[in-house]
Design goal:
Length: 335
Amino acid sequence: MNRSFLNHDHPDVAGMRTRDAQRLAAHQPGWSRFTQHMDQAEVVGLVEQGELVSGVIRINGKKRVEAYVKVEGIAHDVWISGDINRNRSFSKDLVAVRLLPSQEWRFRDSQDASKACQPPKLPSNRHRVGEDEETQGQLLKWAQEEITLQPQGVVVSVLENRHQAFQIGSLVPASGDTVKDRDKFANFIPVDLAMYKILIPLEQCPAGFKEKPQDFREALFGCELLDDWGHEEALPRGKLVKRLGDFGDIEAETEALLMQNEVDSAPFDDEIERELLERHPQGWSIPEEEIAKRRDLRETCIFTIDPPTARDLDDALHCFKLPNGNFEVGVHIMD
């Protein structure tokens, strides 16, 4: 498992001033980092009126300062810049977004970085004297018409939590290489680079972590993300589930991937095993007559294309390169 995530620059922590970092480590209340989410009932009405837009947010794991929301009817994804504007939302969440003034939009697919950072100039027939004249309805209309500009927005509410709650990763001190007396939490660093660091209460950390956190550098942990991320807290909280093993250990990493993708790998219970034995005393295998009338693809790499929420994995593909340089693509549908 690639451990480059440990050196990944998480902007939600890296950009803090020293005072805020100390408050984070000690978890001192009294400062508000995010705006409070709007009431969902109100948000639904505003979305229907065109005063807000909604869609699923995705965070760029290679560049975490950027996130995008796909909104039906808008040519380009709405750009969400920074963790403050993401407002405690996670990848795959359904969110409500308020569009920012058009002068904060950016050029789309510009090869000139300096041009991409300049305030865009809309056509003269859309010129406004001041930002106050730009209503959300007007901004939505312009976003639907513009093909060169990418609108920017801020998340005002999370309508539905769809993110992955179980995370795998590493456990490190919240402030530096050692656990300080003032610290109340440790940082859980998810393998998923699109995920925030997660606060774990020190009392949940394994024995010996406070004294020698470096001894756990190679440890692979599982963490359950909690849903009570308050607007005064810089990072979300989590519950340490278990130590799965060490990075590089195939059994530990396999268990971690199964748990993260909610695959139940527990053995069948005794009743099921007993029923199977009653029906097939000699053990079950594919009948030879069934194999004879089918094309045997058991040695072919075939992968499902069904979504994570599917109950039946009945659609699949294979793809490999032929000797002449062409590619064979096979579509497999369960009969």
